[in-house]
Amino acid sequence: MSSETYLEPAGPTSHSAAERLQVAGLYSPSDAVLSVRDLHVRFNSENGVVHAVRGVDFDLMPGKTLGIVGESGSGKSVTSLAIMGLLPPTAEIAGSVRLMGRELLGLNDKAMCAYRGNDIAMVFQDPLSSLTPVFTVGAQITEALTIHNPTMSKQAKEARAVELLAMVGIPSPKDRLKAFPHEFSGGMRQRVMIAIAIANNPRVLIADEPTTALDVTIQAQVLEVLQAAQEETGAAVVMITHDLGVVAGIADDIMVMYAGKPVETGQVDDIYYDPRMPYTMGLLGAVPRVDVAEKTSLVPIDGIPPNLIYTPTGCSFAPRCPLVSDACRAGEPELLPAGGKAGHKAACIKSDALGGDADVLEIFSAPPVPLSRFDAIPRGERATVLELKDVRKHFPLTKGALLKRRIGTVKAVDGLSFDIREGECFSIVGESGSGKTTTLLEIMEFHKDQDGEVVIGGLSNKEATTGKVRSAMRRELQMVFQDPTGALDPRFTVYEVLAEPLQNAGLGNRAIKKRIMELMKLVGLQPDHVNRFPNQFSGGQRQRVGIARALAVNPKLVVLDEPVSALDVSVQAGVINLLDQLRAELGLSYLMVAHDLSVVRHISNRVAVMYLGKIVEIGEVDRVFDNPRHPYTRALLSAIPVPDPQLERTRERIILKGDLPSPLDAPKGCNFATRCPVFEALPAAKQEKCLTLEPPLEFVPASSAAQALEAGRLPSLDQQFACFFPDGELDEDMLVVHETAEPHAP
Amino acid sequence: MLRYLAKRGITYVFMIFLTTSAGYFLAVTSLKPALLEQERIPRPTPEQVANSMRLKGLDPDLSPWERYVEWLTGIVTRWDWGRSPNGAFVNAEFGDRVWISTRLFLASIILTLVIGVALGVYSAARQYKFQDRVITSYSYLAYIVPAPIAYFLVQLGAININETVGERIFFVTGISTPGMEPGWGQFLDMVAHYAVPTVAITLVGWGSYQIAQRQYLLDNVNADFVRTARAKGLTRNQAISRHALRVSFIPVAQSIAFTIPAIFAGGFFAEKIFAWPGVGSWSIDAISLQDVNAATATLAYGSVIFALGAILADFATTLVDPRVRVQ
To answer: Where are the beta strands (DSSP E) in A508-585?
Structure first.
């Protein structure tokens, strides 16, 4: 392959690759710690050469943070691994990577080792698999010190390891040195990874999706630790993420990548408030906002990213872009100054037209917010489709091989009661381990020996003695699963997947065929694709097949278990819009479990917040999100990053201490007392009450609520919470505000 | 740790008791030594046969349950595993046989393990290179070739060496030359007898360890934690040898439990071909001679070896994997 293949088309500012490199070398700012110029990465695959990174340029200034944003396959992780020299030897890397003026590309593994972990360090995505399971945490930190400081004494290394663990917020660090990774939770392991990365005071720290695998509350903790580590070491940070919220508050500059190329770069405010590339605009519009009550449709970006085996001849985003014209397909646009601000560049020939008041919803022709026929009927007058009365699921914890002794009880679900009315979306939120999934399983179980009553469409589990009742229940309730790839049999065609529930319901072949065609159209798939296998569809399309399968038997209630968490942002928006539309058109009710509170707020009418098997707050979604009363809800909401840099920089955050406690250690009184920011600040007498009495789920005091309702501050009265001191002061240690001076004041 | 081992020990004693009892019932209902007695010349009368059997504690007229109780009482009270139809005491015979088997297999088991794991690591580090292809192809060959044929080939090789040198260096069968004086001569004689069977069993045996160790190490070479180690500043090879190796040994350590008893109790071919009368050949002989007590004893021995192997594997796993350590 000749080097000509990735040349830009002739234009006034184009240079050959060699010229660009030279120019870059001459003009790259001398004070940059990391300068990347014209980075290209190619992999040989069975289908041909994948050109994964196609010309990345950036300069990283000391102490600054660069956010690289993109969807899976955009080349952001490959870029970071190429900089670190951690790509497999089969990868072809071209271009220039200069760390403090020294060229890193072309160095062999051994020479690279002098820099890796010393001047440039990295934190990886999955903390569960990134630490060696058979070595102690202390040994793994000390190893990083030993490699680069062979003369350091054993005591000095141990002292430094303790200091590092303390810095990343691990309690009693000295004892924890001897602990193995499996004794740590995911959040703690990510802290250890950060400690290893900053052990030698690196100049550059690359964090590759460091919080993607973690709960929101833990994500907030880890982001806080990363920021503290940056302040401590003065390192420049490259933050790689798909979540526009995560980088909004901490990045100085943003680079948006698409199909292996940066498509827009600039200072953080310019990117968020004045995007000049349709892809960036779409990404920003595709994310629901947790802090906005007014409902608008999300921006769906149709199609999927291009296959990088074939070099794009035009703009790589053209096939998905609503503004595409023939000029876009004529050649790949260069990254050129846009918007007028220094450093703001976009790779779009129409960037000038996209300024200021361009409405992203209009550009991407987002569907109007669908209205359900039930919306006009007050909730109390609608029929109940699902009711849970005091449902409990306790797992006995036993010890002993032959004779099992009960040594404790895990109260996975502990006395849950709620109901779902027609046409309503009810969501359950909480950290992992809070009992959300167990609740769903208890509903799906539908057995008469369950502890508590589950009523689905008028059928109670207490009467579910025959298979007949249970199969009648299955026609009322269907489920959509989290991972669309795992939930579809790879050897079934879509037709077979959709026909199975219909055959079970006893339909004839002709009726089945007709229904399947209807379903395909309903979920926005082409009816002639029914004979394809699931692996011939993209993730978003597979989830649509999953939704069609659930809808096949016309259920009244659909249970959604994290329906969009496995999907990319731009695809996620399309699926959420579809769910919204189906609810309105078919009068469905949803029971959704999700960890992404922004998605929950966007799609739900009511929400329940769970903590250790109990509902701590429940009510109308806007009411709970705008006026959370339980300290846990407040912490959860404050932990979610919002894609709004100015808001993020000044927002007050409640950072909970530690992880979700083991259900075995649950206190006698309020479950949340061990981590509660209000409890911490209470006088001892009041603390006693929290520790000994269990707060019941109660309505907001009538008088104050009525006042608030009258003043128009609250949309309705539907809100209950379980806390004795909802108005208590918050503990100051758990409050974090980053009142950084506006870095880019206009 | 001791408490854990004691607990496992008790579990295994219980399991050994169950398998041995089940084995005894199977043997006592299917093996009829009295039938063989009738082939003697002059043919004894049924009364004479029954009498001689009764004297050896093998009364065919008793019900299986009665014989089981009698047999078990003998073991529990006197550690007496009964007698063979030819009158030999199982205890005495057993002691000799176990000692022979142990001597035959112990050295080769250790060699098999060490060589197999070492070659697995070596070939994984040179994946798809010439050395890897040669070693791994050999291992698959050793898998495919039936053990007796491989043993014969080694024997032939040893005979060839003897002939080329013109002097008998290796003994291809037997345990020792009778009537040697204790001392240097006897030691050399022992080595000459040991060499051929040990080499043969080792050559055949290491293949499975090599293939397993190579596979598990390759599975871990691209693991996230190896990438972390490299990000700290270790070279690829350092990261693999320090981080991936120990993790990859965990499943190999567990597999030891199942190969050791297989070698010990299933060493029938080796014992026959090299004429070392050990437990393996005894167990086959016992069945053909309708010997209830000896067959059961070899079964019990197999269970004990299996339990020892399993405890050893637990021990090894605990040593390399902190996640399974009991607090």
So the answer is: 557-561
Q: Using the beta-carbon criterion (under 8 Å), do B230 and A118 form an inter-chain contact?
A: no
Candidate from B233, B242, B323 with C-beta closest to A133: B323
Q: Which two tokens stand for residue B52?
A: 């001689």
Residue B5: per-residue pLDDT = 77
Range in A13-17, A182-186, A573-577 with the lowest mean pLDDT: A13-17
Sheet architecture: strand order including A253-258: A120-123, A204-208, A236-241, A65-69, A253-258, A261-267, A345-346, A336-337
Q: CB–CB of A558/A589 below 8 Å?
A: yes
Q: How confident is the model at residue A13 (pLDDT cuts 50, 70, 90)?
A: very low
pTM of the complete model = 0.82
- The stretch A270-291 carries a mean pLDDT of 88
Question: Who's near A722: CB < 8 A, 6+ residues apart?
Answer: A614, A615, A616, A617, A630, A670, A695, A696, A697, A698
Q: What is the largest CA-CA distance in chain B?
A: 86
Query: One-letter amino acid identity for B94?
Result: F
Do β-strands A557-561 and A614-620 pair in parallel, antiparallel, or remain unpaired? unpaired
Q: What mean pLDDT comes out for the span B225-229?
A: 94
Residue A23 has pLDDT above 70, yes or no: no
Q: Does B320 sit within 8 Å of A124, measured CB to CB? A: no
Q: Assess whether the previous peptide bond of B42 is cis (omega < 30° from 0).
A: yes
Report residue B242 as tokens. 């320090």
ipTM: 0.81
Tokens of B222: 């691209």
Q: Hey, is the C-beta of A197 within 8 angstroms of any chain B C-beta? A: yes
Rounded (5°) CA angle A155-A157-A158: 65
A107 inside 8 A of chain B by CB: no
Minimum distance, in Å, between the CA of residue A108 and any CA atom of chain B: 10
**Contact assignment for B229 to A84 by CB distance below 8 Å:** no
Q: What is the pLDDT of residue A335?
A: 87
- Read off the DSSP letter of residue B243: I
Mutate which of B228, B245, B314 to test chain A, going by most A C-beta atoms within 10 A?
Answer: B228
Structure confidence at residue B326 (pLDDT): 56
Q: Does B201 touch chain A (CB under 8 A)?
A: no
Cα gap A464→A457, rounded to integer Å: 13
Tokens of A362: 């209009």
Torsional class of A231: left (φ above 0), alpha (ψ -120 to 50), beta (otherwise): alpha
Q: Is the pLDDT of residue A409 over 60?
A: yes
Nearest to B232 among A117, A129, A180 (CB): A117
Partner residue facing B232 (CB), from A114, A147, A182: A147
Number of helices followed by number of strands (H, E) in chain B = 14, 0
pLDDT digits (tens, 9 = 90+) for B72-123: 998 889 888 888 888 888 888 888 888 888 888 888 888 998 999 999 999 9
Collect all residues of chain B within an 8 Å Cβ-Cβ radius of residue A147: 232-234
Which of A113, A129, A148 lies at the smallest CB-CB distance from B224?
Answer: A129
Residue A741 has pLDDT above 50, yes or no: no
Whole-number Å distance between alpha carbons of A689 and A684: 9
The values of phi and psi at residue A73, to 5°, are 90, 5
Question: Per the CB < 8 Å rule, is B247 touching A147?
Answer: no
Rounded distance between C-alpha atoms, residue A693 and residue A415, angstroms: 16
- Nearest residue of A to residue B225, measured between CA atoms: A130
Strand runs (DSSP E) across A7-134, as ranges?
34-45, 48-60, 65-69, 92-99, 102-103, 120-123
Does A1 score more than 50 pLDDT?
Answer: no
Give me the residues of B, 229-268, that contact A with CB < 8 A: 229-236, 242-243, 246-247, 250
Let me know if A641 is exposed, middle or buried by CB neighbors in 10 A (0-12, 13-18, 19+).
Answer: buried
